[in-house]
Fold this sequence. Notes:
The chain is of the alpha+beta class. It contains 3 helices and 2 strands, in the order αββαα. Strands 1-2 form a two-stranded antiparallel ribbon. The chain is elongated.
Amino acid sequence: MMLEATFTTQVTDKGYILLPVKVRRLLKLKPKQSIQMRVKDNKIELERMLTLDEVFNFIKPSSRRFTQKELKAEEKMAHEAIARNAASEGL
C-alpha cells in the first residue's frame, strides 16, 4: 500500500527538523529510532529503518545441527561472496 501525505515543519536554529506526530505515527517511529535520509533533486526523502527486534524477527533459529565441515564450507562461501562484492565495487 502506497501512502502519501504532505506535512509542513520548520528547521530550527540548530538545524533540527521536528517530525509531526502524525508522521511519526504513520511511519511507526519509536523514540531514538534511526531514519535514513536521501537528498535527490532538491527533495529530502526519509525512510524508517528497521529496529533490531524487527530484524531478528526475520531470522528464525534453525533446529538443524551443522557439522564442522559444513560450517567451514559456509564460512568460505561467505568470504568469497564478500571478496566478489568488494572487487565489483573496486575496493
